[in-house]
Structures are given as structure tokens and as C-alpha cells.
Design goal:
By secondary structure, the protein is an alpha/beta fold. The chain has two domains: 290 residues, Zn peptidases (Aminopeptidase, 3-Layer(aba) Sandwich), CATH 3.40.630; 188 residues, Glucose Oxidase, domain 1 (3-Layer(bba) Sandwich), CATH 3.50.30. It has 14 helices and 20 strands. The strands form three sheets. Strands 1, 2, 9, 12, 13, 16, 17, 18, 19 and 20 form a ten-stranded mixed β-sheet that branches. Strands 4-3-11-6-7-8-10-5 form an eight-stranded mixed β-sheet, sandwiched between helices. Helix 1 packs antiparallel against helix 9 and helix 11 packs across helix 14. The chain is elongated and about 100 Å long. The N and C termini lie far apart (58 Å). The model has no long low-confidence stretch (mean pLDDT 92). The structure holds zinc ion. Zinc ion binds next to helix 9. The site of zinc ion has 6 residues, from helix 9.
Length: 525
């Protein structure tokens, strides 16, 4: 009797001590620390944490994360905290890219080197082809309006203007979906290239300009990777002056042709007879080095410490644009970046570490196509078969006044005060159960509504596709997403703290429980 009671008391004391340690660890994650880190990482001096900025803010952030990891006593993931990520940068060579109108005997009628291109073949490329003016390049299912009806665009360079008859009638702006449908149509017709110019009725439309930043910013890819980010067709953007030269033989300007289309409801497309076009697209490539920062809390079990739970967050963002506009990316992904620091601090505060090791990976070039996490998944610190789960934090610092309505559009998915999106491939029912339990403890309301749309949209993807259970945490999209207005003053630090605490508790449980979490649904590619 006495003996049992003693054991019981001992167990209770032990349980209380563990709980106390956990509570103390949770308290190390607090609003003021998060704020202090975030004001540094998402401050103007970092210039939007991108490659090629005047002040190397991305590098400085990497140094900051390394310094904080050292200060906390985390171990470096390899020989150092930096994992070098070799990448190829490919930037349009504006000086050597051009669009030329050719007349009789190869004569040059017009030379334009202001064009820019999105995608197309990855290498350098020259095409010489006949031209077609195809109005808006549009097809309307309802009215059967078809800009290329009766015109063969195969092997031609097709010139179109932005928007479509309906949008013009309604005075609405164009968007990427509308213009991409034109690309599909041109592609299906076998065109060599699609040239999009601003429509004359809407000179202020900034669609083409907004593409310019993206297109001329170039692209990055992992060295040795097959380029997967090329468009299936040469997609070129030009100006009205060029288009007016092309349609000149009709005796009309672009503005007049557009007016006729709008008035008659009929296409005014034609094959250009008086000239052909030579299009040259050249890219400059160079090697650049990116960095993942990797820090480790070693597990306390001599055998299980060879297994791990990985926390990931990308620390890069979109840099700058135009006259000093800075994309500070306070939420995307300053929040995830600094939350990882606080989670690491919580683990370090535990006297007895979890049985398994914990890896913190701040990954680079997410905004360029999940490149840093791709590299990590190919060069992990612990083998992937010993990686139990990836917990990724991307945009975890915002709250709406109330929870979004059910079935709300993605852009309006910002969670309310208690909402938390958890993207998962549901590979482990045990992990989901565990996650729900922790949400319950913290009063968070989990939603997996973003899972379908977002499974390939952040760094967890490279873990998911390797069959590793993932939890992709986010407080949802908002109107400041990928805008200069994604700023510090909109951050909800209490929410961020709760998300970080959730992440800590879930990871701690997975890393510390005796049995490995069950993976009952393997990934499907
Ligand atoms: Zn992000």
C-alpha cells in the first residue's frame, strides 16, 4: 500500500515536473521577443530579403539567424550553420533581345529592343516568322466570338492586345487568368510566339508593367536541375508603337481597330502581308550561391537522436521595385522566420531534450520556386527516412476580426483570432490527431481548407513528395499578400505566439514519444 502510494506520488511529481518544464518552455515564446526579431528581419534595411539588392539584406538576415542560433547554443547542421545552395540565375539580356519587322530582302523596317519575354525556351532563341494580328486573341464560349476564326496561326507570331471585348465594355481591368487563356489558345493553334501589347482604350492599365518586373527580374533554379519553370510558348510583351507598325498596312491604328471590334462585335484579325518578324530572346546566365541556415537540437536518446523532426521557414522575400518601394514581407515570411527562433529557444530551455533531434532549417529562394527546401530535401542533415515530420511556418502572423465565411475565396481566407490553417497531405492520421489535441489545448481552431490549393505552394512540398508527413502552418492570405503593404504594423503578435507555441508542442510530442508516429498514407505524386 505504502509502496504503491510512494510510486504514485513519485509519478505525479515527475509528471508535474515535465509539465512545469513544458510550461516554462512555452513561456520563452513571447510577443516581445517575436517583435524584437521581426523588426530587424522585416525592417527597411533588409531591402525585402532578396538577391541582388544594394544592401544585401538576404545575407544579413542569414547572418542574423546564424548569430541567434549560436547565441542559443544550437549545433550547426553541418560543418557550419550555412548550407550552400548552388543556383543558376537567368536574366533576360535586354541589349541583345529584340523584335524586328522585316521587309523585302531582309531589310529592317523597325527595330524594337524594349520588348521582354516571360518564359519560352530556356536558352537563347531566334525565330523568324509571319505575323498575324489577332485582336484580343480571345474566344468567348457564350457569344462564340473568336479572334482567330478562319485564320491559321500555326508557326506564326501572333500579336494581340490585353483584355477582351467584355472587359472593355464593362470597363474592367484584365488579369493573369484572362491573358493566360490567350496563351493557351495560341499554344493550341501552334503559334511560334504570342506578343501581348496594352490595349489602346486602357493606356493606364499596369498589367504589362507588372509583368515586366517579374520577367526582367529573371529566374533562379538549382544548379543541375532540369529547368521546370519555362513556359510552353514564347510569351512576349511589347508596346503600342510596335503594334501600330505591325497593323499599318490595314490603314488603321490599333485604336481604330479596337474601336471597330467593340462597335461591330466582330473580330478584325488578319494575316500581315507587308512584313514579317524576327524575334530574338537572349538570356544571361550566371552562378550564384544561396544559403540555407541549419541548426540542430540534439536528441537525448542515444539511438533515437538519429531521427528528427524538421522545422522549416523561408527567410527570403520579394526585394524591391521601382523607386525604392520595399517589399518587407513582415508576414511573408518574417513571421515564420522569427517564430522558428522562438521555437528553438523553447527547445533549448528544456533541461531534458526530446528523445529525437530537432532540425531548424531557414530555407532560401522559396519565392523563386521553393529552391532552398528542394536542395535540403536532396541534402538533408538526417536521412529523409529518419525524418518523422516537417512543420513549416509561412505567413503566421495575421488575424482578421472574425473567421472567414465558409468557402471564401483564397484571397480572403485570412483567419480570425483563433483560426489556424494547417496544410497537410494527411499521411499520418496520428500526427493529425496530435495536432488537433494541441490546438484544443491552446484554443486554436484548425482548418485544412487550404490543403488542396496549397500543398505545392510552400516548402513542405519537398517533404510531402518524399512521403514525409507535413504540417504547413499559415494564418491565411490577405490583401497585403506580395504587396509593399505587408508591413510590421499589421502583425498580430499574440496570434503569432500561439502558432509558435502550437508548433513547439506538436514537434516536441512527435520527437519525444517512444514510438515513431505512424505513416498510414504514403504520398502520391
Ligand atoms: Zn511565403
Amino acid at each position: 500500500m505504502i509502496k504503491t502510494r510512494m510510486i504514485l506520488t513519485l509519478l505525479l511529481v515527475l509528471a508535474a515536473t515535465t509539465l512545469y518544464a513544458q510550461k516554462r518552455a512555452l513561456e520563452t515564446i513571447n510577443e516581445s521577443d517575436l517583435k524584437a526579431h521581426l523588426e530587424f528581419v522585416a525592417g527597411d534595411l533588409m531591402q525585402g530579403r532578396d538577391f541582388f539588392t544594394d544592401i544585401p539584406g538576404l545575407e544579413i538576415t542569414a547572418d542574423y539567424l546564424k548569430a541567434q542560433s549560436m547565441k542559443m547554443g544550437l549545433k550547426p547542421g553541418g560543418e557550419s550553420y550555412f548550407q550552400s545552395v548552388a543556383m543558376i540565375s537567368s536574366v533576360p539580356d535586354q541589349d541583345n533581345s529584340y523584335f524586328e519587322l522585316k521587309g523585302e530582302g531582309d531589310s529592317v523596317l523597325y527595330h524594337d529592343n524594349t520588348i521582354f519575354s516571360l518564359g519560352g525556351p530556356s536558352g537563347n532563341d531566334t525565330v523568324h516568322a509571319e505575323l498575324v494580328f489577332a485582336g484580343y486573341g480571345w474566344y468567348d464560349d457564350k457569344t462564340k466570338y473568336n479572334d482567330t476564326e478562319g485564320i491559321d496561326i500555326k508557326d506564326k507570331i501572333v500579336v494581340v492586345m490585353t483584355r477582351n471585348p467584355e472587359l472593355v465594355k464593362e470597363g474592367k481591368q484584365t488579369d493573369t487568368n484572362v491573358e493566360m487563356r490567350k496563351m493557351q489558345k495560341a499554344l493550341m493553334g501552334g503559334a511560334k510566339a504570342l506578343v501581348i501589347v496594352p490595349d489602346p482604350k486602357n493606356p493606364d492599365d499596369n498589367f504589362v508593367e507588372s509583368i515586366r518586373k517579374y520577367a526582367t527580374g529573371g529566374s533562379l533554379s538549382l544548379e543541375g536541375a532540369k529547368s521546370r519553370r519555362t513556359m510552353p510558348i514564347r510569351l512576349v510583351f511589347g508596346n503600342l508603337e510596335l503594334a501600330n507598325m505591325i497593323v499599318r498596312e490595314s490603314g488603321k491604328t490599333m485604336a481604330q481597330l479596337q474601336q471597330e471590334i467593340q462597335e461591330s462585335g466582330q473580330p478584325k484579325s488578319f494575316v500581315v502581308e507587308s512584313c514579317s518578324a524576327k524575334l530574338q530572346l537572349v538570356k544571361k546566365t550566371s552562378k550564384i550561391e544561396g544559403k540555407n541556415i541549419i541548426a540542430v537540437v540534439e536528441g537525448s536518446d542515444p539511438i533515437l537522436k538519429n531521427e528528427c523532426v524538421v522545422y522549416t521557414a523561408h527567410y527570403d522575400h520579394l526585394g524591391m521595385q521601382g523607386e525604392g518601394e520595399i517589399f518587407n514581407g513582415a508576414d511573408d515570411n518574417g513571421t515564420g522566420t522569427v517564430a522558428l527562433l522562438e521555437i528553438a529557444e523553447a527547445f533549448q530551455s528544456l533541461k531534458k531534450k526530446p528523445r529525437r533531434s530537432i532540425v531548424f532549417a531557414w530555407v532560401t529562394a522559396e519565392e523563386k520556386g521553393l529552391i532552398g527546401s528542394d536542395y535540403y530535401s536532396q541534402n538533408p542533415v538526417f536521412p529523409l527516412e529518419n525524418t518523422l515530420a516537417d512543420i513549416n511556418l509561412d505567413m503566421v502572423g495575421r488575424s482578421a476580426e472574425k473567421e472567414p465565411e465558409e468557402g471564401a475565396e483564397l484571397e480572403k481566407s485570412l483567419a480570425g483570432p483563433n483560426g489556424l490553417y494547417i496544410v497537410s497531405g494527411k499521411q499520418s492520421s496520428e500526427l493529425i490527431e496530435l495536432s488537433e489535441k494541441v490546438c484544443g489545448e491552446l484554443g486554436l481552431e484548425p482548418s485544412d481548407e487550404l490543403s488542396d490549393a496549397f500543398l505545392s505552394r510552400s516548402d513542405y512540398f519537398h517533404f510531402y513528395k518524399n512521403g514525409i508527413p507535413v504540417l504547413g502552418l499559415s494564418t491565411g492570405l490577405h490583401e497585403d499578400y506580395h504587396k509593399v503593404s505587408d508591413e510590421l504594423d499589421k502583425i498580430d503578435y499574440t496570434k503569432m505566439k500561439r502558432v509558435a507555441q502550437y508548433a513547439f508542442l506538436v514537434g516536441e510530442k512527435v520527437a519525444n514519444q517512444k514510438k515513431r508516429i505512424v505513416v498510414d498514407k504514403p504520398a502520391v505524386e
